[in-house]
Automatic annotation (TrEMBL), chain A:
A Gene Ontology cellular-component term: membrane
Entries under PANTHER family matching the protein: MEMBRANE TRANSPORTER PROTEIN MJ0441-RELATED, MEMBRANE TRANSPORTER PROTEIN YJNA-RELATED
Topology within the bilayer: Multi-pass membrane protein
Transmembrane segments: 12-40, 46-67, 79-97, 103-119, 163-185, 205-222, 229-249, 255-274
Coiled coil feature spans: none
Keyword Transcription tagged: no
The protein's name in its UniProt record: Sulfite exporter TauE/SafE
Location in the cell: Membrane
Alphabetized UniProt keyword annotations: Membrane, Transmembrane, Transmembrane helix
InterPro entries the record matches: TM_pro_TauE-like, TSUP/Inactive_protease-like
UniProtKB/TrEMBL annotation, chain B:
Name used for this protein in its record: DUF1634 domain-containing protein
InterPro entries noted in UniProt: DUF1634
Annotated TM spans: 88-112, 118-137
Keywords from the UniProt entry: Membrane, Transmembrane, Transmembrane helix
Length: 278, 140
């Protein structure tokens, strides 16, 4: 493949990754990194670096739309970003120390759990008011949103703030380490653990991922590991894909979003296991 | 901007003259995103048409396996001044990564104006940690 050819192929892969990523509340990195390394033969380090910058782009484009639609809970996002940002710093710095194979296995295990717990408890709008959380009260995290599909306003109460912070730290570590957004952990913990509706969880995660990924990306970028030749088509493709995804998001039923999310998790787990066990 | 009666009480801003967090944040995200995309696309097209990318699989292989050289802002500015496509794309990537930093700073400002102390502290810590990322990356 000539360089121009290669760029166009990258652009296509990136578009598909961005579309799926924004629909599932993922950054798209979970699809971009395996596609770059396994299908296109790019060095994993460069793939991670290009991916994490693209993840920033995905988050920016989809969260701009979600913010306008008021789906994202900005206070929850700000609070959980404390944890994801610390995690992303740890992850990006630890990248050189831990063996990649071990990371793939841990990632596959965590993802399997996330997928399983979400599948077990499909909670479009979690039951309100059980188990009060003093942190959530004090930080005024409770909110509501206008559901475009159901055509009514849905109020929700946030709980499990400490659990959310802990899981989001881990999400940040994985984001910094593997060049992904961490949405695969953010979304289930907000939805199942913190009692937020699935659409709000996806939108809030998408919003947080920009800050998480930018922190990791800054390290990769300043180290010079982001190659413009790779990163430029990946960023543009992912952006366009995410833009399409965000347009669809408000009009799609929560069940369908969950379905897409489950498929993405299943495929990724298989890929990660294959990499880790080889 | 789409405003409805059902604005949430704490995120919508209190009333006339009160900063609307959603509006400020949304604006920052969009301006940063589109400016960086224009830079990245312009830089890539410039590289592509300068003929410096080469042709054939060997050229692709060389581009994909290029080794990392630490980013220095002085060198980047020089590259842009000389019309380098790569430098231009790199500046776009840098702007993209800096946009969430600006977004957090904008949010912090809104919370300062609203005298919401807990969130001023939260935003400031996040901001400091993000800047630390640039510093740590520069250090190697």
């Amino acid at each position: 493949m000539s360089p121009l050819h290669f760029s166009l192929v990258l652009l296509l892969f990136a578009y598909a990754a961005g579309l799926l990523g924004s629909l599932a509340g993922l950054g798209g990195g979970i699809i971009v990194v395996p596609a770059l390394t396994m299908i296109l033969g790019v060095d994993i380090k460069h793939a991670i670096a290009a991916s994490i910058v693209a993840v920033v782009a995905t988050s920016l484009t989809s969260s701009a739309v979600y913010v306008r639609k008021r789906l994202a809970n900005l206070r929850v996002a700000m609070l959980l970003e404390l944890a994801t940002v610390v995690g992303a710093l740890c992850g990006a710095l630890a990248g050189g120390i831990l063996p990649e194979r071990a990371l793939y296995l841990v990632f596959a295990a965590v993802l399997s759990y996330a997928g399983w717990s979400m599948w077990r408890r499909p909670v479009a709008t979690p039951a309100a008011g059980e188990a009060d959380d003093a942190w959530a009260d004090r930080l005024a995290l409770h909110d509501g949103y206008d559901d475009p599909g159901l055509r009514r306003r849905i109020e929700y109460r946030v709980r499990g703030t400490k659990l959310g912070l802990a899981v989001c730290w881990l999400a940040g570590v994985i984001a910094g380490l593997l060049g992904v957004g961490g949405g695969a952990l953010n979304v289930p913990v907000m939805n199942v653990g913190m009692g937020m509706p699935i659409k709000v969880s996806s939108a809030t995660s998408s919003f947080m991922i920009g800050v998480t990924a930018a922190t990791g990306a800054a390290i990769y970028l300043m180290r010079g590991e982001v190659l413009p030749f790779l990163a430029a088509p990946v960023v543009v493709g992912v952006l366009l894909g995410a833009k399409s995804g965000a347009r669809l998001m408000g009009r799609i039923q929560p069940g369908l979003i969950r379905g897409v999310f489950m498929v993405v998790i299943a495929v990724t787990v298989v890929e990660m296991l294959a990499k880790g066990l080889r | 901007m789409n405003t409805t009666k059902s604005d949430s009480k704490h995120d919508a801003g209190g009333g006339p003259g009160q900063p609307n967090l959603h509006a400020v944040v949304g604006r920052v995200l969009e301006v940063g995103m589109w400016s960086s995309v224009v830079l990245i696309a312009a830089g890539t097209l410039r590289s592509a048409f300068s003929g410096r990318l080469g042709t054939g699989a060997a050229a692709t292989h060389a581009l994909v396996t290029a080794s990392a050289t630490p980013l220095r802002l002085g060198r980047l500015a020089e590259g842009i001044a000389h019309g380098g496509g790569n430098s231009l794309a790199m500046a776009g990537l840098l702007l993209l990564v800096a946009t969430p930093v600006v977004r957090v700073a904008a949010s912090a400002t809104v919370f300062v104006l609203r005298r919401d102390r807990a969130y001023v502290v939260i935003c400031s810590v996040v901001l400091a940690l993000m800047i630390l990322g640039f510093v740590l990356g520069r250090a190697g």
